[in-house]
Amino acid sequence: MRCPFCGEPETKVIDSRLVGEINAIKRRRECISCGVRFNTSEQSELSYPRVTKTDNSSELFSEDKVKKGVYIALEKRENTIVDIDNTFNNIFKRCRTHIDKEISSNQIGKIVMDELLKLDHVAYLRFASVYLNFEDKEAFTRVIKDLEKDLSPEMKKLQKNLLQDE
């Protein structure tokens, strides 16, 4: 690290601290040449793959677009901020760690649906209704029945019935 005051390439680290919320390290440094002390911060830089859309165009990954779609699906649902933040963290982690340099918008939609399924089934259905582009009531009903059939016992306790038994 170069000294920002005199440009000397040699500095020594006096103290290092981990900043947990943002996964960064703050360091207190001292220039060997001029003796001035200064702070630095180190943070890993993770980048998202490019998003390939259904029309074969591509664009940069946008956390805001994902958040907007999820927030619309979660509107007027009772979920804690912590649970919602954990869902976003899981979605973004899965997208960041995608193996290829490109990820399709369909794959992002599936990731979002997987994470919403764990959080809130109504939000999952709302998102799925747009993502899967249901053509009729029967397609929607099929997804609901499949959803209720595949629930784990823990998930059944957390969720209300989506369809009334006839």
How does this model look, in words?
The chain has 166 residues and is an alpha+beta fold. It starts with 10 loop residues before the first strand and ends in an 8-residue tail after the last helix.
Which key phrases capture this entry?
single chain; 166 residues; alpha+beta; 2 domains; three-stranded antiparallel β-sheet; three-stranded mixed β-sheet; 6 helices; 6 strands; elongated
Q: What's the SSE blueprint?
A:
Elements: E1 11-19, E2 24-31, E3 37-43, E4 50-52, E5 58-59, H1 63-74, H2 81-96, E6 102-104, H3 105-119, H4 121-131, H5 137-149, H6 153-158
Parallel strand pairs: 4-6
Antiparallel strand pairs: 1-2, 2-3, 4-5
Helix pairs in contact: 1-4, 2-3, 3-4
Structural class: alpha+beta
Count of discrete domains: 2
Number of strands: 6
How far is the first residue's CA from the last residue's CA? 70 Å
Query: What is the mean pLDDT?
Result: 86
Helix content: 40-55%
Largest sheet: 3 strands, antiparallel
Give me the strand/helix succession. EEEEEHHEHHHH
Beta-strand percent range: 15-25%
Point out poorly predicted stretches: none
Figure out the total of helices: 6
Summarize the structure.
By secondary structure, the chain is of the alpha+beta class. The protein has six helices and six strands; from the N terminus they run βββββααβαααα. A hairpin with a 5-residue loop joins strand 2 and strand 3 (37-43).
